[in-house]
Model the fold of this input.
Amino acid sequence: MRGDDENGAPANGQPTMPGEESCLALLQHELRLSMHSRERRRLGECSFRVEGAHFYLGCRRELLDWVCENIERFGLHRSTFHTACNFVDRCLLRSRLGLSAQLCPVAAACMRLAAKSCEMESDVPSVRMISAVCPE
Done:
């Protein structure tokens, strides 16, 4: 047909069948509802109601700044920082730690795990190097 592309669709991008637009809109709406319900379920799984989570959220920025400084100090990639942040959040939002002195070793362990998963083996800082930068 004249004006059609190789797939038989009109060259102007218009729907080929009547009602195709409404079908697409319905699919988009169902997908959006599905995504919202999954998001609500995920947020419900997260244990923000634990006492330790409130403490952690209060000092999260300071702790992640420390992680960022050390990621830069060891010359690691940004993806390592983001992975470490994810690990720290997942660990500490579910924990019952209540002292800031306990948070640093957990963040250091998360940083090392992130480095092991994102960096070349030769670039991963040793436990001794990471523990040397962890405040007492």
